């Protein structure tokens, strides 16, 4: 099947968790793609039509020996967190890369504000000391972007860089929407920040998968950088109102000051004093995207969360 000229070979780096897993599910339903997933094999997918390749991307021998030498119509990289990740993969991957799609982050931007930052906004110039254990995250992702640009020139392939805003939805392991879901399932009050002035840009993980698929081999996105963000601006109040409607009322909230939250060991899912707004207009117009309304995506995420808990015997 992989040798059929009508079928595109897709290599996904990562792919067992969250965004990558949803993309694999979406691709596996489409006959024109042969999907290969390369990761450490800790969470086997076991999906029909998906070839799972085991190895650590940081291990040159594993990359060279465990990934077949094919014409890769797209390499989709979910887990390049530093420039060396790009360099090692590109240097030792056999076969031919036609299009390399790197999933980066809006955390590469220097500062957030109350307006939607577009792709021309200033980016980081160094690590962010105030973020503690995450001080290097955005700057290293930015360096990974540059490593990809350099590799594309050196090895003669096209690239696209996608910077998603806050991602939510199926399989999300980050404590974002699950912060609210867990309270609802436990039938207890939801603690929220006393100050809720900040607004946020989100992207539903399924919309993200569809956007990536539309990018594959698309001339209009080659050698460019795009934000991926829905048009809506979302607040804590909006999230709670949506969930309250979904469960037909009865969600109790308790407002806490920062000091009270710290005393209870609570880390807010979104920074209550900093808006994180980004413009996804360029990619939307380029691909003709239609974003799922936030309320619908969030309710679908809640249903999925309930099903997962039921299957695991936690309900």
Describe the protein's topology:
Layout: E1 8-13, H1 18-28, E2 33-39, E3 50-54, H2 60-66, E4 70-72, E5 74-77, H3 83-92, E6 95-97, E7 99-103, H4 137-155, E8 158-164, E9 166-168, H5 177-185, E10 190-193, E11 202-204, H6 205-215, E12 224-228, H7 236-246, E13 253-256, H8 258-263, H9 281-287, H10 294-311
Parallel strand pairs: 1-2, 1-5, 2-3, 4-6, 5-7, 7-8, 8-12, 9-11, 10-13
Molecular structure report:
By secondary structure, the chain is α/β, with parallel strands linked by helices. It has a domain at 8-173 and 201-233 and 276-292: NAD(P)-binding Rossmann-like Domain (Rossmann fold). Helices cover 35% and strands 19% of the residues. The chain contains 10 helices and 13 strands. The strands form 4 sheets. A 7-stranded parallel β-sheet has the order 3-2-1-5-7-8-12, with helices on both faces. Strands 4-6 form a two-stranded parallel ribbon. 37% of the residues are buried.
Side-by-side strand order of the widest sheet: 3-2-1-5-7-8-12
Structural class of the secondary structure composition?
Answer: alpha/beta
Q: Please, how many helices?
A: 10
What is the approximate shape?
A: globular
Low-confidence stretches: none
Task: Please outline the major beta sheet.
Answer: 7 strands, parallel
Rg of Cα set? 20 Å
CATH superfamily of the domain at 8-173 and 201-233 and 276-292: NAD(P)-binding Rossmann-like Domain
**What is the element string, with H for helices and E for strands?**
EHEEHEEHEEHEEHEEHEHEHHH
- What percent of the residues sit in helical stretches (DSSP H or I)? 25-40%
Q: So, CATH architecture of the domain at 8-173 and 201-233 and 276-292?
A: 3-Layer(aba) Sandwich
Q: Count the E strands.
A: 13
Top-tier CATH class of the domain at 8-173 and 201-233 and 276-292:
Alpha Beta
CATH topology of the domain at 8-173 and 201-233 and 276-292: Rossmann fold
Oligomer: single chain
Percent of residues in beta strands? 15-25%
User: What gap, in angstroms, lies between the N and C termini?
Assistant: 42 Å
Mean pLDDT: 94
């Amino acid at each position: 099947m992989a040798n059929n000229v009508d079928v595109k070979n897709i290599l996904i780096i990562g792919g067992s968790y969250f965004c990558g897993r949803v993309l694999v599910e979406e691709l596996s339903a489409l006959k024109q793609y042969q999907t290969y997933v390369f990761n450490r094999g800790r969470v086997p997918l076991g999906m029909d039509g998906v070839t799972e390749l085991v190895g650590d991307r940081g291990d040159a021998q594993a990359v060279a020996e465990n990934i077949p030498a094919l014409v890769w119509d797209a390499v989709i990289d979910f887990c390049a967190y530093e420039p060396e990740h790009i360099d090692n993969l590109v240097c030792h991957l056999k076969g031919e890369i036609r299009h390399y799609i790197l999933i980066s982050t809006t955390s590469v931007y220097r500062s957030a504000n109350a307006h939607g930052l577009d792709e021309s906004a200033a980016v980081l110039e160094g690590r962010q000391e105030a973020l503690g254990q995450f001080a290097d995250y955005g700057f290293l992702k930015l360096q990974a972007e540059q490593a990809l640009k350099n590799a594309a020139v050196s090895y003669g392939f096209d690239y696209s860089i996608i910077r998603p805003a806050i991602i939510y939805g199926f399989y999300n392991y980050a404590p974002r929407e699950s912060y609210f879901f867990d309270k609802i399932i436990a039938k207890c009050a939801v603690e929220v920040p006393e100050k809720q002035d900040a607004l946020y840009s989100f992207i539903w993980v399924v919309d993200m998968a569809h956007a990536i698929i539309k990018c594959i081999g698309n001339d209009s996105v080659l050698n460019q950088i795009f934000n991926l963000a829905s048009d809506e601006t979302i607040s804590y109040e909006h999230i709670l109102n949506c969930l309250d409607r979904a469960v037909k009322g009865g969600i109790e909230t308790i407002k806490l000051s920062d000091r009270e939250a710290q005393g209870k060991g609570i880390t807010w899912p979104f920074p209550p004093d900093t808006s994180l707004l980004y413009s996804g207009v360029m990619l939307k117009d380029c691909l003709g995207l239609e974003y799922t309304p936030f309320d619908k995506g969030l309710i679908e995420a809640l249903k999925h969360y309930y099903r997962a808990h039921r299957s695991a015997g936690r309900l």
